[in-house]
Design brief:
alpha/beta, globular
């Protein structure tokens, strides 16, 4: 396993690639998790366990708190005025909502990829090297190795190896999204949060990103927000349905994707899956 040593002696270590033995134990656990924007509840009382090395798709209509739930997991919600989060989030042995939790370390461990590709207005190479340098990785060989490794991981290396100094914004939309995923992978996260990562892409680019997500699940624990139920059926190991009840998002049903799609326990889940609701 490759480790990139920072100048302060810390190491950014890619996660263990053998997660099968851990799959039955939860990596992420939320208990009575609620989030409010001022007095408005985005979601309330969400209890969810997510296993190691699995893809969990979060589905449901717009406005039911799926994206807010993702942002709470690495405390990007801290950056939103009048946003309050209560309940419990555990990621491994880390108490995420503890005021003493180092949010920089947390966001290194839990990376978030947004709906619209957002590469830095820099070169392709600098999109990878900048976050590494910000985390005190200074050795040139380590940086060069990291750039090649993560671009290979997302299937971009052969496409851009001869133009690493070109602007990242010159890439196609699908390539930009894969670059953003590579930028996140460079810091060696355990968890990848993807908020509708294909919704801004054409069908061919979307298929490439879908295949990439599936290829990463043996090394990362992945949560994906999607409105595309066909996509969720293709890529997800587990499915979680959110819905608005009494003015707040609620987790309605969660379980193995095949079981939820083929034999949902809740009538609302069945109606949503069959296109009668939502």
């Amino acid at each position: 396993m490759n480790k990139f040593k920072a100048t302060n002696g810390a190491q950014i270590t890619p996660p263990d690639t053998n997660l099968k033995s851990l799959a039955s134990s939860p990596l992420i656990e939320t208990e009575n998790l609620s989030l409010h924007y001022g007095r408005k509840a985005a979601f309330e009382d969400v209890n969810l366990s997510v296993g190691h090395g699995r893809i969990t798709a979060l589905v449901g209509p717009s406005g039911c708190g799926k994206s807010s739930f993702l942002m709470s997991l690495n405390r990007l919600t801290d950056l939103i005025p009048n946003c309050s989060v209560s309940g419990s989030i555990k990621i491994g042995d880390m108490n995420v909502l503890d005021p003493d939790t180092d949010t920089v370390s947390l966001r290194t461990r839990v990376g978030l990829i947004f709906q619209k590709p957002n590469p830095f207005p820099l070169s392709i190479r600098e999109n990878i090297t900048l976050p590494l340098r910000e985390h005190n990785v200074a050795n040139r060989n380590d940086i060069n190795h990291a750039v090649e490794k993560v671009l290979q991981d997302v299937g971009l290396w052969d496409e851009v190896m001869d133009r690493l100094n070109f602007p990242a914004l010159s890439l196609s939309g699908g390539q930009q999204q894969r670059l953003c995923i590579a930028r996140t992978l460079a810091l060696g996260p355990e968890v990848l949060l993807l908020d509708e990562p294909c919704s801004a892409l054409d069908p061919l680019s979307s298929a490439v990103v879908e295949d990439l997500i599936v290829s990463l699940k043996d090394r990362y624990t992945i949560l994906v927000v999607t409105h595309n139920l066909a996509q969720a059926r293709r890529i997800a190991d587990y499915l979680a349905l959110f819905w608005v009840r009494n003015g707040a998002g609620r987790l309605i049903e969660h379980g193995p994707a095949g079981e939820v799609f083929d034999a949902p326990r809740e009538n609302l889940t069945a109606a949503y899956i069959n296109g009668m609701r939502g």
